[in-house]
Each structure stands twice: as structure tokens, then as C-alpha cells.
Amino acid sequence: MNKKTKSLSLNLLATLALYLLITVLIASGAINNYLANIIITICITIIMTSSLNVTTGLLGQLALGHAGFMAIGAYVSALFTKSVALDFGLSLPLSLLVGGLVAALFGMLIGIPALRLEGDYLAIITLGFGEIIRVIIVNLDITGGPRGLTRITRMSRAFSDDRLLSSIIAFTFVFTITALIIASIFTLGRSRHGRAIISIRENAIAAEATGIPTTRYKLLAFTVAAFYAGIAGGLFAHQTSIIESRMFDFNKSIEYLVMVVLGGMGSITGSIISSIVLVSLPELLRGMDKYRLIIYSVLLIMMMLFRPSGLLGTREFSMIRLWERLEVLWKRIFRRHEAQTKMPFQPRYDVWDDKPVLETHSLGISFGGLTAAEKIDICLMNDEIVGLIGPNGAGKTTVFNLLTGVYTPTEGQVILLGNPIQGKMTHQITADGIARTFQNIRLFKSLSALDNIKVAFHSRMQYSPISAIIRDAKCQSEERGIDIRARELLRVFEMEAQADVPAGSLPYGQQRKLEICRALASNPKVLLLDEPAAGMNPSETAELMQTIKTIRSQFSVAILLIEHDMKLVMGICERIYVLNYGRVIAHGTPEEIRNNKEVITAYLGQDQAHTEASHA
Amino acid sequence: MNLFLNQLINGLHVGSIYALIALGYTMVYGIVKLINFAHGDIIMVGAYTAVIVLMTLGWSAPVALLAAVVVCVIFGVLIERIAYKPLRNSPRISSLITAIGVSMLLQNAALLIFGAQPQPFPTVLNIEPIKLNGIQISFVTLLTVGISAVLMILLQGFVIGSKAGKAMRAASEDYTTAQLMGINVNTTITLTFAIGCALAGIGSFLFCMAYPAVSPTMGSLPGLKAFIAAVLGGIGIIPGAMLGGFVMGVAESLTKAYISTTMSDAVVYGILILVLLVKPTGLLGKTTSEKV
After folding, report:
1. What is the ipTM of this complex?
2. What average pLDDT is seen over chain B?
């Protein structure tokens, strides 16, 4: 049995045990109708919080209007069962699906501004949408207006004539849906799609540059979250049988947000625990009704003061983990590492020996009236290491941004492997074969080194979100393959020991190396390194030179390198371009550049250049 | 036409109250990047203080106003020191949740002490409204708009001209660097909260003169709207808060007059969404993009 199946069966067993326990308790009468109802409320709350955690925890965007989606699901699903003459056992699941889909549609609509807005502004937009949904519901006739929708079939009574049997079926139904939704969030979260969403939270610019279509994934996260909230709304409507628009107001959204934060943003198990606690807590405090909310709010403040990142932080509680730790220990003591199958990187491209891999034709950009770069003509041959140097502010990083689509050139062309790529999105250009590192390191800090690399494999994998949720054979084999290749890549850079260390806690030199490693994982034909030696001491720089040479020999990639360390540039570059005031002022071999008058002037100024020349 | 002008004046009246409250949000946000959800409830604190001073103690209106301001400032500073300061280096969402907690605490404590029944706010100014060709302007409206405008100008002058104002701007620009330049960031932040809450105290008095009912949850809706006004105008920007407040107030009262009372919130949020879609950082906000 491998780890995945073991984990699956453990979780399945625990879920089944919990289900059987509650069912037996309901059947025996130990859990009365009132308690059974609370358990169903807990399930609905769990769906709400774990789905909100997809946008807020995984994607990292604060959403203040989650109850709005619940409202849509509730009304749509209630109206569906009211108007359709089907057996309740059939019409309820159908209505949930319809409610979920309509909510998902709205989620997508609300996700569109998310493409433009960030942080608190986005939070306010979601708040606004949530409130608009509520106000519209009040003003419609079909929704019963301010009086609300009444006499919705109550699921605890409608499944069977026998009250007890009916409430057991209702519980089974809600429990199953909740379990399925949680499982799907987990499988999705741990797939390439989940990694893509999390990488946006960690560093949106780097995510785009490693080939993640960030806009699409933001939309996906919003849509999925809304879909599940819609289902929760449908369940809620058929639990209470009366719905009013004010049940889904801003305060409701806040209530769910509080639960997500208390459980730990990004931790689905945290959301589950806090949902259970926070739904039952008011019931436990029912005796002291007057002080209930005061106690609740004081607890909330205390909790945040003493545990600001919530109960579980971003970690997940897992049953397999303990088991795994024991196993790892066992292996470390008694067995050696099994040899892993070697799977060398195959260059994806045809041999491109005689023609340039990358060339630009009079590339330029101006911001308003300011010309940051103009008439840049650069060409890179296969397997070449080329330097790009120039004084600070000469436009070196601007050239990188033009090549990678961070800026769209206002003039000129970028030709990669014979095809023009200017005007494409950054993630498309990455998938086409240009990868880069950043001047200020941009790693996905809370992800492990291994996961940082796996994110970059994204554009080379194919399985869909659906196959991620059901973990079909395609998803599993692709994930297995990527795991092997990512570890392989780490081994090339002698970082296999750090595979599970969060990228943010690696030492500086290794962070730089990991960033290069991640860039290579997208299998580029051209690698752009932006000041890789910045902040390194001489021995680290020497090591870096070696690394760059290794990359060239092992990966068949052309390297364009921005660097201020002349020893490094002169030491490994075959050719050098010199930039000043946004133009290429010189181009040639290191030797030619060293003696170029214009270059010396650019670096040292007119007078010095003159004296220097006369001295020479 | 007269209906339109009257509604416009009503809008300016409500709008200038929103603007006053929005200033507190915008200043606090500018410096600690926190949506201070408890700010709306400071209005409630000020209102109850004024009611106690006016009704129970039977003192005059200016004393009540002063008392409201002082109590609001004390509450604001205490909340900042106890609940927000320890979280300054935590994830921002934690302070947001704390702010929500403080808001709930204030509301429920007030509920426990004063009960849910709204208490009437006495009439403090009994001056005949001014009538001009069928347009009616009450004295309270003039007073409210006037006071708000003056306070806004004073505040802007303070932030731009004074040494403490300069410290505020430095701290909102870069908190750590400001410390390195010898600015006492703690004092600066406390001062920011104090000023914001003093304005909320004045706002609460003006609010009660317009809507004379004091209840534990009275602050949450104007608080939320003021916050939205701050975002609309461009959060962190003082003239933006004023502009946002007026836009909100006018849009709200015109919708109530011409479309429907219940739709007014939807229209206000709709305007907000449209503005943010076109100008993601609000009406007066500057767009900043992250340097790659």
C-alpha cells in the first residue's frame, strides 16, 4: 500500500466511524431532533468556512461577501424544489446543483474585478456585491421580498413519513455532501491547480513568471468557493424552511470569516474545527444568554492577541502524518534511500544551432513621455552565455521585463525560436520558453523548496481540475512524474536535503539557487538571470559561476545575465551587451568591452575616462 | 427642481457626517493599514455619552459635545493600545478580526448596560429652518456641513504643515524607516487614533442631531458607509474621504427620493464597484504598481 492509499483509507475509515457513531446516536434517541439540527448546522457551516478558505486562505484574497453566494444558492434551490414536481429525494440534490451553479456564475462575475483589484479594495468590492445581492433579493417579488420565502420543504421531515428515519436520511445526505466537498477541496488544493492558486497568494508576479495563468486561477478559486457556498445555501434553505434576505447580510459573511481566521487561514481542518467549536459554543453558553456575545467577543480578541495566525496556521491536521513520521524514522534507521529512477530532462525543442534562439528588433518602451528603452537589438544563440551590463538605471531590468511580457513593448519585436512573442502574457511567454529570476528574490516563501519547483512544472502538466478532484489515473501519473523530476532537479543543484524546507527559511545563497532551479523547471530555452550574484560574497560568487556553467552544459539553454560583478561577467560571458540610458552602447567579447571607450565613459564619467585612456 | 435641491441638501448633510467619520477610517488605514471596524461603534459611545450628559446630568449641549469627544478619544486610544498595538507585526487579517471583536464587544456591552430600546436624543438646537424659494435648509444642516468642512481643512493643514503631521505621513509611507529617522511611531499612531476618534465624537453628536435615536447598534451602518466613502475617495487621502462622503450622501438621498428607499444601499455599492473598476484605488487615489 502506498502513502496516498494509506492516507485515503485512514481518512475514509475515520469519516465512516464518525458517521456511524452519529447515526447510531440519532437512531437510539441519544441525539434528539434539536441536537441533530445543530449537527446539520455544523455541516453547513463547515461547507461555508472551508469554501471561504479557498478564496481567503489559499488564494489569499480577503472576501467579505461570502454569505451573498449562500443567499443565491438558498433562494435558487428553494424556488427549484417549490416549483418542480419531482420526488423530494431527486429534486433536492438537483436543486442544490442548480443553486450551486447559479452561485458559481455570480462568483465568476465577482471574480472579474478581482483580476484588477488587490487586497482591501477587493475586500470592499466583495462586500458591496454581497450587499447588492441581498438588497436585490429584498426588492424582487419571486423571492418573497422582505417577508422572505416560507414553507420550503424541510428535509428532516420530507424524506420519509417516519420522523426518525427521515432525519437520519437528512443527516446522511448532508454529511455525505460535506465530506465530499471537504475531500474535493483537499484533492484540488494538493494538485497542480491548488499549487497554482497558492503560488498566487505567495507571490503573484513570480507565479505569472513561472507560467501560472494567474487571472484564470483567481477566477477558478472564486468560482469554486461560490459553487460550494451555493450548495451550503441550498442545504440551509431546506433545513430551516424559511429564508429571509437578512439572514445573509454582511454580519453573516463576517461570522464565517471569523471562523476561517480563527481556524487558520489556508488550513481546511482548522476551518472544520473552528466551525464545530463556534457553532456549539453559543449553544453551550445558552444559559447565560445576556453575557453570551460579550464572552464570545472577548474570546475572539484574546484568541487573536495570543494566536494571531489562528489555531492551526496554514498547517493541516492529518492522521497520516504521525504514521508517516514513524515510517520516515524507521527508514532512516534501518534502510537506505531507494535509488530513484533517473529521468533526465529532454530538451523540448529542435536543434536550433545556426539561428538565434532569441532576438529582438529595435525593441523599446516609453512610459508617457519617458523613454526607458529604445532600439534594443539583442540576439542569443543556443547554449550561449551573454552578459547585459550597464550603470544603475540604464534599463537592464526593463529589457528583462520587455522580454518576459511584464511590460508590453511600445515598439519593436521579440522573436523566440523564430516566432514573435511580444504582446503575449507573461505566463504564455514562460510556457513558450523564457524563464527568469528576479533582482529581489521572489520565491513562494511558505511553500517547500520542492513545491516551489512543482509550481513551475504547471505549464507542462495537463490534467484538469475535475481529474484533480477525483484523483484519476492521469492526475496521479502526472503528479508522480513531476515529483521525480522536481527531486531530480534539486539533486542537480545539490539541494535535495532541503526539499521539504519552506523556501523562506533557506539561507540567502540557497534561495538564489532555488530561484534559478525553479526557473529551469519550466524547461526554458532562454534563461534570464537578474543580478544572481547580488549580495553574495566572493566564494559564493565563485560557486555561482560554476552553477551557471553547469546549467549550460546540462540543460541546453541560452543564458542572458544582468550582473554588476565584473569578475563574474567577464569570467563566464561569451559576449556582452552594454546598456546606457536605455540604449545599447556597445556589444562584443569581454575583451572588446573592457577596452571600449564609450563603456568606460558610461561607467566612470567623461574626465576619468579621459585620464584612464591617457594613462593607458 | 425643488425636490431635487432639497434632496441634494439632505445628501450633503448626511454626506458631511459620513465624511467626518470617514476621516477616522482613512487616517488609521493610512498609517497602520487596518480597517478599524470598531470605529463605527465609537460613534455609539459618543452618542451615549452625550445622552447621559444631556439627560441624566442635565448639562448644556457644548459640555455634552466636549464630553462625547473626550470619551471617544479615551476609548479610541485604549482600544489601540490594548487590542491593536500587540498585533502590529502580525498578519493584517488578525488585526481585522480583532477589530471585529472589539466592535462586537462594544455593541454587546452597550446592549447589556443600556438595553436594546433606542433612547431619544433631545433637541439641542431649536432654530427655524431657512427658506429660500421653497427650498428648506435647516440650521442643523448648515452647522453640520460647516463644521465638517472646517474640520477637514484644519486636519489637512495639520497633516501637511505640522511636525506631528509630517511624522504621520512618514509613518504611513514606511513604518520601519520612519522609526529609523527618529520618529516615535507609537506616539504617532496613538495620536492618529485620538484625532480620528475626536472627529468621530463630533460626528456622533451631529449624527444624533440629524437622527435622534441612540441604540447599541446605531454605529455599525454609518460606520460601514463611512468606510465605503473613504474607499470611494481613495483610502488614506483626507480630501478623498470628504469627496467620498459627499458622493455617498448625495447618491443615497437622491436614490431614496427618485428610485426607492430600499434600493439606496444597492445604488451606493454599485457606484463604489463602478468607481473601483475604473479607478482601482478610488477617486483621488494614486495608482502604484509593484516594481519588478
Report:
1. 0.84
2. 87
